[in-house]
């Protein structure tokens, strides 16, 4: 679908984004339309979290949010951490009661979500006793539990293997019409997403359909990386290294 036919959700028009006096992205121009699946790439410090934070502010309650450092409470059980996604929807009394004695309906909802995320049987376990990958899935569960039309994720699949990453991204897709997800898995950016935004040196240097890009172009976003550079004509071989054919087909892709 052409951009003009899609509903515009957010537009930046030469704006400066940053933190107080520190400008990170001095003249950002981009647009996010309903229905887009955007991979946000750039090396550490490029400004991915800064951009996601601004999107989050502008989209407000339309967007579910999965932060980079999870923001989970280690002493609380998985159930309570996921339930926190909807704290604002309940009264303080209901939230307090739920803390002591979980309410039946949310318990069922959270249990179903945790089943889908491979966290079955862990609802009562304190998050502090989980592995890094399990914590990451709890953070995703909490964002999914918010039940918003958009999903903003700051490296939500950073600590899982490629197959699990794709499964989680498919689950996120199935529950949101639009997403912007920061990640470092360049192959996934090309194979799973509609569009790629690439940040480098304070600028948006890539804003293009994923199908028009090569791994070599994405590699150029990481000037400090030691990784072997890929030439454009090795794209298929590199994507094949992920064995995408063995994985479930992402939405909208043949
Ligand atoms: N709260 C803050 N106050 C001041 N400067 C900040 C703040 N948060 C981030 N920065 C700075 O803004 C720049 C961009 O940081 P940001 O976290 O957006 O990058 P990133 O691409 O998300 O990095 P990473 O991949 O390491 O998470 C960095 O120079 C960082 O030091």
From TrEMBL:
Gene3D superfamilies: P-loop containing nucleotide triphosphate hydrolases (3.40.50.300). The lineage of its organism: Bacteria, Pseudomonadati, Pseudomonadota, Gammaproteobacteria, Oceanospirillales. It comes from the Bacteria. Keywords: ATP-binding, Nucleotide-binding. Pfam families: ABC_tran (PF00005). InterPro entries: AAA+_ATPase, ABC_transporter-like_ATP-bd, ABC_transporter-like_CS, ABC_transpr_LolD-like, P-loop_NTPase. GO terms for molecular function: ATP binding. This is ATP-binding cassette domain-containing protein. Residues 10-226 form the ABC transporter domain.
